[in-house]
Amino acid sequence: MQDLQKPKYKRILLKISGEALIGQSDYGIDPEVMCRIANQIKEVHSLGVEIAVVIGGGNFWRGASASAGGMDRTTADHIGMLATVMNAVGLQDALEKINVFTRVQSSIYMQEIAEPFIRRRALRHLEKKRVVIFAGGTGNPYFSTDTAAALRALEINAEILFKATKVDGIYNKDPKKHTDAVKFEELTFMEVLDRDLRILDSTATSLCMENNLPVVVFDITRPGNIKAVVMGKKIGTIVKKG
Predict the structure, then answer these.
(1) DSSP of 163-180, one letter per residue?
(2) Quick count: other Cβ atoms within 10 Å of Cβ 127?
(3) Sequential pLDDT tens for the chain (242 residues)
(4) Do 186 and 37 meet the contact criterion of CB atoms below 8 Å apart?
(5) Are 218 and 167 in contact (CB under 8 A)?
(6) CATH homologous superfamily of 11-240
(7) More exposed terminus of the chain, fewer Cβ within 10 Å: N or C?
């Protein structure tokens, strides 16, 4: 049985959706929301857990939507990558204000703002108990931040990928639109692909499946949930290899 006083995981990758940072606004960053997330991360960090973070950019920009509106897809995705950098720097500021040492590493070279992504350097930061925030996605267009999160999680040897959203797990249909939506407690990666559930994009799902990296989807807006999932409490939906 899992010791409830000790974390279940030693090294994690936390994927935060950009939309989770909006709060009650239509777009951008709500400083109060950012502070709450930072405090949740600190709570887990104080347990000795090594934490890496990937943040989406959907609170500022969605490349696929802009592309559908007529913008060149590569250009649209590059703008989205820059949005993730803004969110990463914002989270860094919130964490360091509460005395959590962080490093932002970007897949896009911008030395005045962030370190370049260097795997060995990222591992060293984690070993020194710094929170590492990966920005810029994979650095390539046509890949989502879900894929970036799966890729970085594997590169740093994370034990699990936590996808933090505004929904408390994976449902068979949108719970905001359908009152009869059913929540899944557990799924296999093949079930996610076969049912076209789209909680992760198919590239990220396949990458996690092929490398046996479990994923937990949970609600970050509820205080204490990051600590709860790291401690092994069964909240949200776990996706793993069948």
Answers:
(1) EEESSSSEESS-TTT-TT
(2) 10
(3) 445 578 999 999 999 999 899 888 788 999 999 999 999 999 999 999 999 999 999 899 876 676 667 889 999 999 999 999 999 999 999 999 999 999 999 999 999 999 999 999 999 999 999 999 999 999 999 999 999 999 999 999 999 999 999 889 999 988 888 889 999 999 999 999 999 888 888 999 999 999 999 999 999 999 999 999 999 999 999 999 87
(4) no
(5) no
(6) Acetylglutamate kinase-like (3.40.1160.10)
(7) N
For residues 31-67, one letter each, b for 16 or more C-beta atoms within 10 angstroms of the residue's C-beta and e for the rest, the string is eebbebbbebbbebbeeebbbbbbbbbbbbbbbeebb
Rounded distance, CA 166 to CA 141, Å? 25
Whole-angstrom Cα distance, residue 81 to residue 218?
24
